[in-house]
Amino acid sequence: MNKNTKVLDRIKGGLIVSCQALDHEPLYSSYIMSRMAYAAQMGGASGIRANSPEDIQEIKETVDLPIIGLYKKVYKDSEVYITPTEECVDALMESNPDIIAIDATNRLRPYGVTLDEFFKKIRNKYPNMLFMGDCSSLEDGIHAQELGFDLVGTTLCGYTKETKDVELPNIKLMKELASTLRIPVIAEGGIWSPEQLKEAMDTGVHAAVVGTAITRPMEITKRFVNAIKG
């Protein structure tokens, strides 16, 4: 069994916990994210999703779980911010994640580069890396499979112009992708409760990601406060 097959087997049927904090958020710190990841591992997580080479390196020193790495970077000329450039992929490769997540929507990347152009280049450059396509729709997922992505997620449903009003979690999209594609599908986006997680897993997906509901205490607190306010 090769390394990539082992990675996919390790996350199969499990919960991947997203441990991320941006520079304007209270828990922004590679050390804090590594402790979040450790807590997730102790709770039974089968994988971690993490942002930035720095966080990934710190987390790898703390936990022994497969890591889906991404690099969020904002560019003025593009709506794509999840691993948007070749330089971002190069930087992630230095931190050695098990999987690299990339925006796989049809939106143009920085400098007017198409997904097709971009992915062909990085696939040739890193033929043995597992690449996950963060998708917003069934069409995105089908196209990502055609391009040669190894797995896809429902990550960006609700974050594109076409899907901004879609109710999350999008169980229907998870079902469609899981029943249509040959490659593994990761359920991600808007999963707030154990009941929703179970419903997502029952669609036939390979694994599921939960982030905000576990690792973002400011957002969790807001939810409770809003409940009080009615």
In a few lines, what is going on in this structure?
The chain is an alpha/beta fold and 230 residues long.
What would you say this structure looks like, in words?
42% of the residues lie in helices and 15% in strands. The mean pLDDT is 97. The protein has an 8-stranded parallel barrel, surrounded by 7 helices. The longest helix has 13 residues, at 30-42. The chain has a single domain (3-229), classed as Aldolase class I (TIM Barrel, Alpha-Beta Barrel), CATH 3.20.20.70. With 230 residues, it is α/β, with parallel strands linked by helices.
CATH class: Alpha Beta
Strand arrangement in the largest pleated sheet = 1-2-3-4-5-6-7-8
Mean pLDDT: 97
- Whole-number count of domains: 1
Q: Work out the strand percent.
A: 15-25%
Give the SSE order as H and E letters: HEHEHEHEHEHEHEHEHH
Low-pLDDT stretches? none
As a whole number of angstroms, the C-alpha radius of gyration is 17 Å
Topology:
Layout: H1 3-11, E1 15-19, H2 30-42, E2 47-51, H3 53-60, E3 67-70, H4 86-95, E4 99-103, H5 115-125, E5 130-134, H6 138-147, E6 151-153, H7 171-180, E7 185-188, H8 194-201, E8 207-210, H9 212-215, H10 217-229
Parallel strand pairs: 1-2, 1-8, 2-3, 3-4, 4-5, 5-6, 6-7, 7-8
